């Protein structure tokens, strides 16, 4: 059981580390890093599920019977590129917040907002 | 065996990222994390995914993090937001998820439900129906082309978002000032500049190979777009953003980002007009398999255009913003 589920447990650990960074850290850049750790853990989850014992990469070659499942590969391939595009939007928002508030720490931004109203 | 070690490394790096307060170190660690997960994907037979993760996770994303940090500051505030409560929530969620995995089919088992449904159809029939050896490409570009169209639109939208958030309009005197500071800073990187100049043609050629060989080996529009963009970004890093803008005009790039999406969509419309369903390429030619080949070539080209242009747009706007904040500071002093 340990070997059969090891990959999935690592996925859960990584996911929880990412989740912890997102909720416990106040720095917006660090939060984005946490989100991308979370995101990568989902990628690892899908790709682990696609693996078949004794299988090979899903590129058709003569004489090979067993291939790993290509469908999760497709889903994750596009998700990676979409992930970087959305991360870039997040970073752009952080840069604009820095310009507007002079800080990217959540607490300080909150303090400034409270002073304004 | 090697995948167990790689996964353990990933956990170690993730813990190091939590503890590290220097954001520069964090972004370097994130680059290593990306590279290690790419190696893990290779051991899991996901070569196309590994290719993408290596160019995106270890390349472009580290770069964007670094540029963002130059503008937002390097160190993180030591204060945590209710760490005990956060740890409690995380532990509860984690143990529930672990409990959920106990019911899962074991890793690598061939009779898991995921392998019994659609996948056998793709593996057995893709050669006759699509005629492309790389099953990932045939699923990505033909069976699930509508899905991929959605992803391309998302990337395009993200490009527009970054453009809306970060683009700056400059006065000509500022441009001259930025140019002169850039030239001063970069005059010392003579060796790097020459080496990069020699490397760029090969990187571009490799990107084109990945683009057009994606039907037969790992590769395709997504990977090729990122590699193509990385060559341009490399040039912009060493020769300054304004030199790079003179080589590749920003409005031309924006035009190409839109052209990519348009090309993809119009292939779908052409097959609609020929009486088949949206993005059914067998309508493109008398021979269905030849039609599939043509369709995949065109839409991969569309994907490549959009991905490459959006990556360049993102980089140019981040870098342009940074130059702008630098001039503002020098105007103050």
Main sheet characteristics of chain B: none
Shape of chain A: elongated
Number of helices of chain B: 13
Straight-line distance between termini of chain B: 58 Å
Tally of individual helices of chain A = 4
Q: List the uncertain runs of chain A.
A: none
Order of helices and strands of chain B: HHHHHHHHHHHHH
Give the assembly state of these chains.
heterodimer
Calculate Rg of chain A over CA atoms: 20 Å
**Largest inter-chain contact set:** A-B, 84 and 104 residues
Number of strands of chain B: 0
Report the major sheet of chain A: none
* Helix proportion of chain A: over 70%
Which structural class matches the secondary elements of chain A?
mainly alpha
Q: Per DSSP, what share of the residues of chain A sits in E-state strands of 2 or more residues?
A: under 5%
Mean of all residue-level pLDDT scores of chain B:
88
For the record, give the distance between the C-alpha atoms at the N and C termini of chain A, rounded to a whole number: 57 Å
The whole-angstrom Rg of chain B is 23 Å
The fraction of residues in strands of chain B falls at under 5%
Any overview of this molecule?
The complex is a heterodimer of chains A (117) and B (333). By secondary structure, chain A is mostly helical. Chain A is 76% helix and 0% strand. Chain A is built from 4 helices and no strands. Chain A has helices at residues 2-24, 28-50, 70-101, 106-116. In chain A, helix 1 runs antiparallel to helix 2 (28-50) and helix 2 packs antiparallel against helix 3 (70-101). The termini of chain A are far apart. In chain B, helix 9 runs antiparallel to helix 10. With 333 residues, chain B is an all-alpha fold. The longest helix of chain B has 45 residues, at 288-332. The mean pLDDT of chain B is 88. Chain B is built from 13 helices and no strands. Chain B has helices at residues 2-19, 23-43, 47-72, 83-101, 118-129, 135-143, 145-166, 172-186, 190-213, 221-239, 241-247, 250-273, 288-332.
